[in-house]
C-alpha cells in the first residue's frame, strides 16, 4: 500500500500516482518561483554570505513544521494537500543545492570561517525553525481547554 494511502484519513479518496506527481510538480514550480523571486529581491553581494538562501531554507523549515503539525492528527488533511504544499511547494522553495553551492563558493574564495558559519546557521536555523513551526501550529490547533480540536 502506498504511503499516501496509509496516511489518508478514513474515507478519503487518494489520487493516483500520475495525479499526485502532477500535484507535486505544480507545487514545486510555485515554490521554485517563490525562491527565485526572493533571490532576485535579495541578491548575494560579492564575497557575501548567501543570506537569501539562508532565509529561504529557515523559512521553509518553519513552514514544514507548521504543515506537518497542521495536517496530521485527528483532522488530517487529504494526501494531495501534503503533496502540494510539502513535497511540492516547500520542496521547490527550499534548496540544498544552492546552499551547497554557496558553501563551495565561499570555500573556493578562501573564506573558510564564513563557510562554516553559513553551514552552522543553516543547520541550527532549520532545526529550530521546524521546532518553532510545529510549536506555533500546535498552539493554533489546540482547543481552549488544552486539548486538540475534534
TrEMBL record:
It catalyses: fluoride(in) = fluoride(out). It holds the Pfam family CRCB. GO terms for molecular function: fluoride channel activity; metal ion binding. It is a multi-pass membrane protein. It is found in: Cell membrane. Fluoride-specific ion channel. Important for reducing fluoride concentration in the cell, thus reducing its toxicity. This is Fluoride-specific ion channel FluC.
